[in-house]
Amino acid sequence: MAQKPAIPKGTRDFGAKEMAGRNYIFDTVRSVFKKYGYTPLETPSMENLSTLLGKYGEEGDKLLFKILNSGDAFAGVEPQMLQNSNALAMKVCEKGLRYDLTVPFARYVVQHHSELAFPFKRYQIQPVWRADRPQKGRYREFYQCDVDVVGSDSLLNELELVQIADEVFGRLGINVCIKLNNRKVLFGLCDVMGHPDKMVDITVAIDKIDKIGLDAVKEELVERGIDESAIRILEPVLLMQGSAEEKLEAIGGVLASSETGLKGVAELKELFSLIRSAGIRTGVEIDLSLARGLNYYTGAIFEVKALDFTIGSICGGGRYDNLTGIFGLAGLSGVGISFGADRIYDVLSGLGKFPDDAIEGSRALFANMGREEVKALLPLAASLRNAGINCEIYADSVKLKKQFDYADRKGIPFMIIIGESEVASHTANVKNLSTGEQKTVNQSELVDFLLCAEK
What we know:
With about 450 residues, this protein is an alpha+beta fold. The protein has 18 helices and 16 strands. It has helices spanning about 15-35, 50, 55-60, 85-90, 100-110, 155-170, 185-190, 200-205, 210, 215-225, 230-240, 245-255, 260-280, 340-350, 370-385, 400-410, 420-425, 445-455; strands at about 40, 45-50, 65, 95, 120-130, 140-150, 175-180, 285, 300-305, 315-320, 335-340, 365, 390-395, 415, 425-430, 440. It has an eight-stranded mixed sheet with strand order 1-5-6-11-10-9-7-8. Strands 13-12-14-15-16 form a five-stranded mixed sheet. The longest helix is centred in the N-terminal third of the chain and has 20 residues, at about 15-35. The chain is elongated, with a radius of gyration of 28 Å. The model has no long low-confidence stretch (mean pLDDT about 90).
């Protein structure tokens, strides 16, 4: 017996209905990106592994999908390489599937630096891959919708990303909260805790607080060599309540001895002042437990959570000052934000927020009543399509019941029946399949009738 076909865990098929919903998301975010002056970019699905490794932290490196070299990939592998997964990967795998869109973007900027006008603003809508453990809202293949600007230090760029998030989720009808923090604040915390060298360990642990809870985070910090006295400094910060102004005032006191930390607080204060002036409709709050584990973030960090649907973050990003420097081009600061299309799809689907007109299927089906009748209706089908009405002709001359069943299964709202008598009288019978109402109209009026019926 043949094995039942299946797809890899953490991936999904998207049929017509799902594609229509996803395209609705893409069209919405794309229109907002373009409104703010961002231009499109696409990069290859695979990158050189050397481009990807070391950019996402130790845990991120483990989640890279690596592509085995063609031919005898393991020729020349030495026993000691088996003790180091990265060394082995670099020997047998020259390429990997991209983990995100930001690192490929930085690589592109460096390669094409002389051709670009700075600040360079781009948007990118493409899939990424992560060898993660599949679970609700977490996939191994998923689409990101990224918008980044590189070549400017101005906090106006951060404000613009908050405005974009505010407008995108407003258009999609998703009630969200935008959370902000700053990696400089997190470094300042590590500094006053007495562990400035443990920035990665501390932020990786903090970044899991929503998933595993505070007690588990504290246990992980101890395992990572953070002493109890340092954790006592950190804990009240992670639990801090109050308005943005109150939190910033309080954290400023905690970080009084850290120059970098106070700079982060000042940046957050200025950004919040800009947000208030811009009249952002979405709720924006300071979340001092927000760490976002990617190593390349250096300043402001963002995360967006849906308020009416339980799922992980549906959007996030931050400022990165050194990413292009890794590829040999220092001094280009950038900031970006990424919309997780697959999680946004799950939210819209779960809340029933997809609009009815997001479905892109046929609006009318011409019944096939025979060879001569089909010849007569071909010009009519063309006129409907030219008027923007998606339609199709049933391919075979079979019983009408089968044709009606086909329209019902595809959700086509109108059936158009033109038999021998209708050909002679230049009329058409139009049946509304949702109400059962049927009308006879002149063929010359068919387009106007259907356009009015859809309103």
